[in-house]
Here is the input.
Amino acid sequence: MDFWKSFYKKKTDPAFRKGLKGLLGFSPNNVSLYKTALTHRSIKETSDENNERLEYLGDAILSALVAEYLFKRYPYKEEGFLTEMRSKMVNRQQLNEIAVRMGLKKITLFNKSDSSLKTSQIFGNTLEALVGAVYLDRGYKKTAKWVSERLIMPHMHMDDLETLEINHKNKLYGWVNKNGKTLEFETLREQVENGRRLFTIGAVINGKVIAEGKAFNKKDASQIAAQAAVLKLGIENAGSIGNEL
Here is the structure.
């Protein structure tokens, strides 16, 4: 979209404002907030120019809004169910997938020469930063309406989420225990990418690396590795496949 080229120009450029209106569904007041929300630290190191502070705020606001939504939608469900559903709705992978579907991958400013960033989950971070920008720009009620109409209703299908298993590590541990195997998550590599430590974690079954995951913290990297292992082993439809390793 040509109007996003103005992202690199003046932050008050009319074309950029028009593009934001198309993305958000309303006319922004403080355009500079959204410019910051769409800027990754690999482009701007200083905290007042990249989206990390807005991501922090947006994460808290989104979590609160989703909690309120679930509290009202499921008036008779216990706390454990509500907590699990919230995790399913706002976990890193889910938000990253939603962000990509919304087109944030195309318009987030990040170092495209860094191949690890292209396949990472920074776009979910951008989405959280965008929530933070909406909150600061338009307030809580407008943000609640925006999250409901732009995120929850079109992208979070509750009936599907109720039956979704998101903890791939637990699923993998259950499978290896059932099949009499051993599972470990090992740090295979640790490197620095744009001032941040990037971890490569391997899912190791019976001493063999089955799958790998990369992330900027070990917890996310191990979940990605576990998910890749679950897909590779066909555990979703597991039968006697355990004997193939």
